[in-house]
Design a protein that fits this description.
By secondary structure, the protein is of the alpha/beta class. The protein has helices spanning 11-21, 34-43, 60-70, 86-94, 107-139, 149-162, 178-187, 209-214, 231-234, 250-262, 288-294, 299-305, 322-337, 346-353, 360-374, 392-414, 423-443, 448-455, 459-469; strands spanning 2-7, 26-31, 48-52, 76-81, 99-102, 168-171, 196-200, 239-243, 264-265, 274-275, 279-284, 308-311, 343-344, 379-380. It is built from 19 helices and 14 strands. The chain has a five-stranded parallel beta sheet, with helices on both faces. A five-stranded parallel beta sheet has the order 7-8-11-6-12. A two-stranded antiparallel sheet has the order 9-10. Helix 17 (423-443) crosses helix 19 (459-469).
Length: 478
């Protein structure tokens, strides 16, 4: 049932709107002046509201402004005006009106507008539902898996820091889930309805980081054919994660520090600084104190970011969480991969708990995905678990190759004269890459999508490497 408020001091206008809007699934409520409309809007819930721009008591624009400042769920508002002026249209839209109608109007106009508003309302409900589900996934602990004391302490810390706007530095080894923790902080905060933007400093060329973060004006540099707002302003009202902050070039650290202190950014090529309202989270796997000692990271920036440190323990220090993580990955990835939900035996879990997990949770995720794809039975046995080719036949092959490579490298380095490119290092790296890709293609019967999945890389990356190394993916396998 949609509830619609019609507020206009003219009986004829209310009559036309009533005729246009009446129908199944709609409840119409009328007000003949602004004060009655104000009382109804304060006491009841409406999906849509048609408000006359000029009527006794409060005007439509005054009511619209009050709705915008109230917060919470507000109706979609259509302003009704007798004068189709530029100023009326600007004022209505500036205060958040969905649209406006100019008197006189007919039934077809109103019906078309209501259908448009109904579609907009459906989209609003859909987005709200998605946000609610995402938030609930973090609140229920489905996305951060663990019940060990170390993880319980992490959950408590997330709950405490989420309530403030203090800058947070998330510390942990690669693969421990630093971005997941950052998202949990965001979705528990008062900014949860605003954007969460993550920027990986190590993934952006150093010459583009400033424009990526702070934005740029058109023509500010070669290739800047359009203006960009930058990630700080993209995250307005929400949270910005500066991931791998330790990789930020020293030349840009001073500019970032100024932004954090002044809460304003100056786009590249822009005439002035612009204010930003954003919460900053930073994450790194590096030892920033060691980087400060080496002179590669500013001490003042470290203290500015490290208001609240949040440390994530590596997986090897919470091995009792391995069974829950495996269950989570099976439930998540079996439908995505189109394979049966195969569950590990107790022997398999013991096998997994004995591993050191240098790649942490991300490594375990890839191991489970590989096992789901390659296992032939209904359950996951220890034989189905290929831990980065460090056990069984894979480990022996890797050891043999390494011993042979060591002998060959020694011969190369003992040869007289300077080595030219590609040199021993790159030659051996290419040979190792060739062996790894060939093995993945062998295991996937030449299926490139499956091979890329086994290796945990993008399919385009796989295809590029195949071309570079001269590997024919369609060649017969042994």
């Amino acid at each position: 049932m949609s509830r619609i408020l019609i507020a206009d001091d003219e009986d004829s206008i209310r009559f036309v709107l009533r005729e246009a809007l009446a129908g199944p699934g709609r409840e119409l409520v009328e007000a003949s002046d602004g004060e009655e409309a104000r009382r109804l809007l304060a006491a009841e819930s409406f999906d849509f509201a048609f408000l006359d721009i000029r009527m006794p008591g409060a005007t439509g624009l005054e009511l619209l402004e009050e709705l915008g400042s109230r917060g919470g769920r507000a109706p979609l508002v259509v302003i009704i005006t007798a004068q189709n002026s530029f100023e009326n249209a600007i004022e209505a839209m500036k205060h958040g009106a969905f649209d406006y109608l100019t008197k006189p109007f007919d039934v077809a106009q109103v019906q078309a507008l209501v259908e448009k508003a109904a579609r907009q309302a459906e989209l609003r409900h859909e987005v709200a539902s998605l946000r609610r589900r995402v938030g609930e996934s973090f609140r229920s602990g489905d996305s951060i898996i663990g019940s060990t004391p170390e993880m319980v302490d992490l959950f408590k810390m997330i709950g405490r820091v989420a309530q403030s706007d203090a800058d947070v530095l998330i510390l942990g080894e690669s693969g421990t889930g630093k971005e997941v923790v950052a998202r949990a902080i965001h979705y528990h905060s008062r900014r949860s309805d605003a954007p969460f933007i993550a920027v990986n400093m190590s993934a952006i060329p150093s010459e583009l980081i400033e424009a990526e973060l702070f934005g740029h004006e058109r023509g500010a540099f070669t290739g800047a054919t359009d203006s960009r707002t930058g990630r700080f302003r993209d995250a307005a009202g929400g949270t910005l994660l500066l991931d791998e902050i330790g990789d930020l070039p020293l030349s840009l650290q001073a500019k970032l520090l100024r932004v954090l202190q002044e809460r304003e950014v100056r786009p590249v090529g822009g005439p002035r600084a612009l204010p930003v309202d954003v919460r900053i989270l930073a994450a790194t796997h590096q030892d920033l104190e060691a980087a400060i000692a080496k002179g590669t990271f500013r001490e003042d920036l470290y203290f500015r970011l490290n208001v609240v440190p949040v440390r994530i323990v590596p997986l090897r220090e919470r091995l009792d969480d391995v069974p829950r993580l495996v269950q989570h990955f099976v439930e998540r990835f079996a439908p995505e991969l189109g394979v049966p939900a195969r569950w590990p035996t107790e022997a398999t879990l013991d096998h997994l708990r004995r591993h050191h997990w240098p790649g942490n949770v991300r490594e375990l995720e890839n191991v489970v995905k590989r096992a789901l794809v390659l296992a032939a039975g209904d359950v996951l046995t220890p034989e189905d678990i290929d831990i980065a080719s460090r056990s069984g036949r894979g480990a022996a092959a890797a050891t043999d190759w390494t011993d042979g490579a060591r002998r060959e490298l020694a011969e190369m380095l003992e040869a007289p004269g300077d080595h030219q490119q590609p040199g021993p290092f790159w030659e051996l790296v290419q040979r190792l890459e060739h062996a790894v890709l060939a093995e993945a293609l062998e295991r996937s019967s030449g299926n490139q999508i499956r091979a890329a999945g086994l290796l945990g890389i993008n399919r385009n990356t796989l295809r590029k490497k195949l071309v570079e190394l001269g590997i024919d993916p369609h060649a017969p396998r042994r």
